[in-house]
Amino acid sequence: MLRMPKGVTWIVVLALGGAVGAGAVLLRSESGSRLSYAAESAPAIVAPAPLAQASDLSAAFRQVAKAVRPSVVSISSVQRPRPSLPRDPRRYRQEMPDGFRDFFGDDFFNRFFEFRMPEDGREREGLGSGVVVHADGYIMTNNHVVRGADEVSVTLFDKRTLPAKIVGTDAKSDLAVLKIDASGLKAAPFGDSDAVDVGEWVLAIGSPFGLDQTVTAGIISAKGRHMRITDYDDLIQTDAAINPGNSGGPLVNLRGQVIGINTAIASRTGGYMGVGFAIPANMATSVKDSIVKHGRVQRGKLGALIQNLGEDLARSFGYNSTEGVLIGDVLPGSPAAKSGLKAGDIVTQYNGRPMKDADQLRNAVAATAPNTPVELFIFRDGKQQKLSIVVAELEDEPALAGRTGAGGEQSANLGMTVETLTPELARELGYDRGEQGVVVTDVAPGSASARGGIRPRDLIVDVNGKPVRGVKDFRDAMDKSDVARGLRLQLKREGNRLFVFLKSAR
């Protein structure tokens, strides 16, 4: 032990030697004279085996980032001012469940598409992320990144910036597909999001705060989150750092596969707080394929009202679990009715997949292409039974009139979006109960619809003399019309009926 003379203050200086595990302590007096020097060997802080494992993990991160970053793009959008339609809460819900409000605060759900909001009456600019899904220029991103945009541009990994066309959007899953005039791009491979496990390492890649090609790491912290951010959500939760601007970028596993599209964060501040959500890759792939093939999303339906099971309710049916989906009612003439499904049946499997709750079944049916035969396993009268059912098309979906379809044909450039008038929307917009038609929710500046005088909130009740009761009627009428020659619409606006003639510009 070193004895220090009275009245002398000593300064201890730590020095790291050049050799691993070596250390030394140098004692000097305030005058700078050396008093004593002692050196001793210290054991390695990290044993070789764990250090090798950490190095392997770091190498995996580097390899995945190197492989996937060329497929990740930055997306910029411009939206010009226009009359707006009040938000339909069925489509643009961002409320949180009551049980989460006290814990997270009122700003629990923050979209992290980065908007720069100028003064009123000026253009609005936005920045998000996306991922290349086909080498010939198809890109997937979030719907909220491009919703209402008049101009969209994409910056690639090689720094090229190209204009992008919106092939199709889907507000109900918050997904969109863009197309740029490019070839030979590197498409990111998609993995099976159903196979991911909680605790699995993932990387998030995107453009947070405009910092393109940013890579962050974390784990999958939960699966199957139904947060009511969109109509169809079955979200993957992650603690990989994601921030404003990451929206639409990929969540990637250590095999270099996209297992999710980043879409929202839970935050008190709007920034990273360790809880982010991604749309599962399986759902994203289904939506993307439908948009690329049809220019819109085709969803399946059974025609049954479904609900979750509680312990007491399950026990009343002689069912000893709360995992499953109870059929509350079956609509006459629906696929469910034709298959023999009955109220009181408990669906335990859908096409080979166990069903835990109503949200899972609803999402599974929606992701099934119309006219596809599927098998249901149900619990009825104390035993399991198997039913075959052919899924029909869910018809009450918003329609875009004026997007470019992916089959190679240019659709009529009418430039408006419509959706079926529901009782809730009729009440919000001041239309009479029982009124039927499609409401115009968006009109692109300079489009045929804008030139013809179509406005948001207009109710289209007739196309070329044929009544329109909903989106399906509107879509059928559009398909049968020669819009290059023109078509006549009858509208209701502020309680008055008027006619509008539209002609597409090709």
Summarize this structure briefly.
With 506 residues, this protein is α+β, with helices and mostly antiparallel strands. The chain is built from ten helices and 32 strands. Strands 26, 27, 28, 29, 30, 31 and 32 form a seven-stranded antiparallel beta sheet that branches. Strands 4-7-8-11-10-9 form a six-stranded antiparallel β-barrel.
Shape: globular
| Class by SSE composition | alpha+beta
Distance from N terminus to C terminus (CA atoms, Å) equals: 92 Å
The average pLDDT is: 79
Query: What percent of the residues sit in helical stretches (DSSP H or I)?
Result: 10-25%
Q: What count of domains describes the coordinates?
A: 4
Number of strands: 32
Identify low-pLDDT runs: 1-39, 84-119, 398-412
According to CATH, what is the topology of the largest domain?
Thrombin, subunit H
Give an overview in words.
The protein is α+β, with helices and mostly antiparallel strands. The protein folds into four domains: 10-41, no CATH class; 54-297, Thrombin, subunit H (Beta Barrel); 300-393, Roll (Pdz3 Domain); 399-502, Roll (Pdz3 Domain). Helix content is 17%, strand content 36%. The chain contains ten helices and 32 strands. The strands form six sheets. Strands 26, 27, 28, 29, 30, 31 and 32 form a seven-stranded antiparallel beta sheet that branches. It has a six-stranded antiparallel beta barrel with strand order 4-7-8-11-10-9. A hairpin with a 5-residue loop joins strand 1 (10-16) and strand 2 (22-29). It starts with 9 loop residues before the first strand and ends with a strand.
